[in-house]
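Tokens in:
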């Protein structure tokens, strides 16, 4: 394990804001990105908090993210929002539409947000977690550049194409939250393994020749495998249609890399938001009881099991030292 630095929440927030502004982000972009990063650091998978934040900082400086965008949002149907991120971050476009989206869901029972032309979405669970905080059920889907083969030996045709689902479980409880890739693992897990010199499990990836490998470095030069073979590939295709198909964003085969070059990946994002019945239906309370019941049966309930909620204010964030130092250097600290 890499050495970690423990930083209190206020210091982490201040450092992240300084780094964003120093890297070329405007105030609104920095605020949206830092909020999403802190949310991921508190409740998401560790690799998608501050480690992925460094990718954003590099991309601001290298031109893959427009640091001063002018996002737009149209409403072609009463319950449908179609946004263009103007090559900025996905979180900003979502934030700007969020209040109207929530109002539409509470009025109509369901609403859809789509967005094209953004940098990668970061932790996809963030979007449905935001909705769950408003008592709303959410499903989200996104894509990026092709890095997943449909089968071993074939070309990379999909991104990891993650999907997220959030269901509110009431006040005092974190929401049930599923956030997983269509690939056997998330790309950032392979990046982390390669950086730390660790091998990866069989079934995760192939090398550049199309042969399965447990060498993380060779996997970065090859491609990831879908989970569950053809069934996982079908899920990746479904996510591709929901994200790129619904938003009008580029297919993964046509999407530039989010880690190199100077061109925005311009990816798609779709979020479907639904009310969990009427307020007097008791559906949220019923779902809470079911989550507790499953845990008593030894079931891991994602977003709930092992999560202390709310986290103690005195508890610091653990950031890998190399990540902390990279952010501090950009921030000029």
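Residues out:
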């Amino acid at each position: 394990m890499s050495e970690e630095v423990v930083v209190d929440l206020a210091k982490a927030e201040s450092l992240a804001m300084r780094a964003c502004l120093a890297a070329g982000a405007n105030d609104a972009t920095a605020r949206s990105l830092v909020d999403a990063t802190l949310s991921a650091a508190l409740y998401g998978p560790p690799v998608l908090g501050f480690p992925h934040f460094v990718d954003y900082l590099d991309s601001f400086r290298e031109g893959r993210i427009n640091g001063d965008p002018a996002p737009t949002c149209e409403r072609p149907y009463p319950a449908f929002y179609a946004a263009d991120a103007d090559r900025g971050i996905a979180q900003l476009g979502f934030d700007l539409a969020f209040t109207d989206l929530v109002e539409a869901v509470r009025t109509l029972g369901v609403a859809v947000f789509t967005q094209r032309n953004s940098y990668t979405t970061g932790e996809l669970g963030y979007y449905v977690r935001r909705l769950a905080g408003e008592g709303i059920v959410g499903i989200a889907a996104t894509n990026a550049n092709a890095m997943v083969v449909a089968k071993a030996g074939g070309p990379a045709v999909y991104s990891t194409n993650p999907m997220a689902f959030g269901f509110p479980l009431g006040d005092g409880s974190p929401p049930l939250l599923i956030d997983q890739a269509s690939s056997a693992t998330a790309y950032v897990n392979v990046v982390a393994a390669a950086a730390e010199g660790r091998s990866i499990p069989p079934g995760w990836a192939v090398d550049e020749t199309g042969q399965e490998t447990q060498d993380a470095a060779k996997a970065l030069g090859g491609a990831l495998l879908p989970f569950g073979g053809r069934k996982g590939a079908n899920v990746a295709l479904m996510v591709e249609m929901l994200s790129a198909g619904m938003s009008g964003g580029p297919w993964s085969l046509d999407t530039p890399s989010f880690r190199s070059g100077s061109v925005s990946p311009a990816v798609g994002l779709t979020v479907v938001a639904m009310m969990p019945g009427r307020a007097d239906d008791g559906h949220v309370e019923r779902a809470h009881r079911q989550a507790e019941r499953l845990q008593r049966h030894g079931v891991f309930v994602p977003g709930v099991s092992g999560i202390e909620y709310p986290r103690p204010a005195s508890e610091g964030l653990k950031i890998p030292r190399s990540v902390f130092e990279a952010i501090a250097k950009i921030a000029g600290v």
